[in-house]
Write a structure and sequence with these properties.
Elements (H helix, E strand, L loop, with lengths): L7 E4 L1 H4 L5 H5 L2 H7 L3 E4 L3 E2 L12 E5 L6 H13 L3 E4 L13 H4 L4 E2 L10 E2 L4 H17 L12 H6 L4 H13 L7 E2 L21 E3 L1 H12 L13 H10 L7 E2 L4 E2 L12 E3 L4 H5 L13 H13 L3 E5 L18 H9 L16
Parallel strand pairs: 1-2, 1-13, 2-5, 8-9, 9-12, 12-13
Antiparallel strand pairs: 3-4, 6-7, 10-11
Helix pairs in contact: 6-8
Length: 366
């Protein structure tokens, strides 16, 4: 098993079904397999505070959230997926923790740095050294070995030895994950906005050895073609037939050209990469939520255009990815939602439960 030939389905367990549990989501896996999906990608499931959220504000990154059921329910979900021939991959966040409920920084300050800020607050994890490698690598490998992320104390490591390692953390993660898999398949996909193709080049060619990259360029061009929307980060796209020909042949549209929106060059050369390393999509969790009203793409274009773009997505040589409900043109909106405490929490919670109905149920207030 490799990235070649995969059809990915992105899912948020908390909104995928009305019950919002692993057990309820598990009952839909057979239908996804019949649809032609081969790989289910789960939005972050690490424990986070509150009663709902996307999961990117996790504060206990290696313990499955209690909101969707018990850890054994997650194990059963994975086993059931494998029984249908479906792979399961997790969307993981290893560079920050959420702003609410993060107690680790109070007794483990060496894991954090104030050098960078994130949208989730000042809980930026160090990207190199003892903090990142001693906590992330053993747990990621435990997840591969056992089938789910596990919580356990980090092993003792020599910080000076770790800091001297010339290997990038992502390259180390890829190497360790494949070693922990012991011959079993492991797919590692990066969401990398700057479009650094080094991530998917093999280590012997100076790369990090990952399997695939999300292709934002294709999404942006598709939105312009379908809606005529051409502002903000869509500014540099025209939605022309040539853009879709180029995306099919070469993956990224920007491979070092000037990008007006960012006032600089964007991307790196990708002409030698096989098409399957580019994960193509016309919807994902971020892009649907970024539409302000959480509208699905079919609601912003004509049926004919939408069918044509869907056919392109599925038949192009890249790896297609569907966002939950896209397979039947769900009308359920998908907003950002989080249940944080304080003023930012009230702002997020106001639109949370009501604006994130299940993709497999009619929208309704909760």
């Amino acid at each position: 098993m490799s990235i070649q030939g995969q059809v990915i389905y992105e899912m948020h367990v908390g909104t995928f079904t009305p019950a919002r549990t692993w057990a309820a989501a598990m009952r839909e896996l057979g239908e996804l397999a019949r649809l032609g999906v081969t790989c289910v990608e789960i939005m972050p499931i690490g424990e986070f505070p509150g009663q709902f959220g996307w999961g990117y504000d996790g504060v206990d990154l290696f313990a499955p959230t209690h909101l969707y059921g018990e850890p054994d329910d997650l194990r059963r979900f994975v086993d059931h997926a494998h029984g249908h021939g479906l792979a399961v991959i997790l969307d993981v966040v290893y560079n920050h923790l959420g702003p609410d409920g993060n107690y680790l920084k109070h007794f483990s300050p060496d894991y954090f740095t104030d050098r960078h800020q994130t949208d989730w607050g000042g809980a930026q994890l160090r990207r190199a050294g003892l903090g990142a490698r001693a906590r992330i690598l053993p747990r990621q490998c435990a997840g591969v070995d056992r089938g789910i992320p596990l919580r356990r104390p980090p092993p003792r490591r020599d910080p000076e030895h770790i800091r001297r390692l010339p290997e990038h953390l992502l390259a180390a993660l890829a190497r360790e994950v494949r070693a922990a898999a012991r011959g079993r398949a492991a797919i590692i996909v990066a969401e990398n906005e700057p479009q650094h193709t080094r991530l998917v080049r093999p280590p012997e060619r100076g790369g990090y050895g990952l399997d695939a990259l999300w292709n934002d360029d294709l999404h942006h061009s598709a939105v312009v073609a379908l809606t005529g929307k051409n502002e903000a980060y869509y500014t540099d796209y025209n939605g022309t037939p040539q853009e879709f020909i180029s995306a099919a042949k070469w993956g990224y549209l920007y491979q070092g050209q000037r990008y007006k929106w960012q006032r600089g060059r964007r991307g790196t050369p990708a002409l030698d990469l096989p098409p399957a390393v580019f994960v193509n999509f016309i919807e994902n969790h971020d892009q649907v939520a970024n539409s302000a009203h959480g509208h699905r793409l079919h609601q912003m274009t004509s049926p004919g255009r939408y069918r044509a773009m869907t056919a392109y997505l599925l038949l192009a040589p890249g790896t297609p990815m569907l966002f939950q409900g896209q397979e039947f043109a769900s009308s359920a909106p998908f907003h950002f939602f989080a249940d944080h405490q304080g003023s930012s929490g009230r702002r997020c919670a106001k639109d949370g439960p009501r604006s994130s109905p299940s993709s497999r149920a009619s929208p309704r207030p909760r």
